[in-house]
């Protein structure tokens, strides 16, 4: 498999049963659904994967089962959404026992980061203590720290860091990073609103939550972007924005994405903990809107 992370990398939802337990059959079905669509990498336990709310043994089970179904077939990226470097290392060492090799890690959170040097030390500390590679996760809306392009460039120079997933939605800063580091390591857009434009400008790929239900559509957009077909990419991006509007029908976006997958017969639509499931009225409205959109 290509060492540089590229292409469409769906941040997979975590399939659950009605009682909230991990659905092993759902994990396999969702992975097969992605592979059949031509996906070459998947990302588990990120924001879309409810990685911040699953219990630690549930996260471990998700990793263990995902390694089984993806081994030697597609790249597996594992989110480690822990507030400190020490806790990231602790979790990664568990996941490495199951065969996981690439880990998506945000900047430290809860305790405020004092400066960008602290972010550098965070990733260096982790990289020096684990076997696998790291992918920097820049998601300031959730961790309240922005990894600046200059810091990202330093991190991408580290031998144990394989790429960066930028979910800032800040086009100017992402563009600066992209123009400086394009083609040397995986520079991935984590913002679906900017997915098409980012790939046209040379981003190695996109990490779109809606690809859980519609991986084929995103694969077509990636192919069009590689061919620099602006018109076709624009049309796919228009459909994606429509899907995002439909997704907003529910109170909780993860519940909406899981329902879209359930409509495809891939998984059951259950969400974890206190997340609001879709009501009957919301699912009915989503059905109408998705059918009108030909989805």
Could you characterize what this model shows?
This protein is α/β, with parallel strands linked by helices and 295 residues long. Helix content is 46%, strand content 12%. An eight-stranded parallel β-sheet has the order 1-8-7-6-5-4-3-2, with helices on one face. The radius of gyration is 18 Å and the shape is globular. The mean pLDDT is 94.
Which features would summarize this protein structure in a list?
295 residues; globular
Count of alpha and pi helical runs: 12
Main beta-sheet strand count, sense and barrel state? 8 strands, parallel
Biggest β-sheet: strands ordered side by side in the sheet: 1-8-7-6-5-4-3-2
Rg value: 18 Å
SSE order in H/E notation?
Answer: EHEHEHEHEHHEHEHEHHHH
Q: What is the count of β-strands?
A: 8
Beta-strand percent range: 5-15%
Terminus-to-terminus distance: 31 Å
Shape assignment: globular
Structural class: alpha/beta
Which residue ranges are poorly predicted, with pLDDT under 50 across at least 5 consecutive positions?
none
How much helix is in the residues? Answer: 40-55%
Mean pLDDT metric: 94
Summarize the helices and strands and which ones pair or pack.
Elements: E1 7-8, H1 24-36, E2 41-44, H2 56-70, E3 75-79, H3 85-97, E4 102-106, H4 116-127, E5 133-138, H5 140-143, H6 149-156, E6 161-166, H7 171-181, E7 186-189, H8 195-201, E8 205-206, H9 215-226, H10 230-247, H11 253-263, H12 280-292
Parallel strand pairs: 1-8, 2-3, 3-4, 4-5, 5-6, 6-7, 7-8
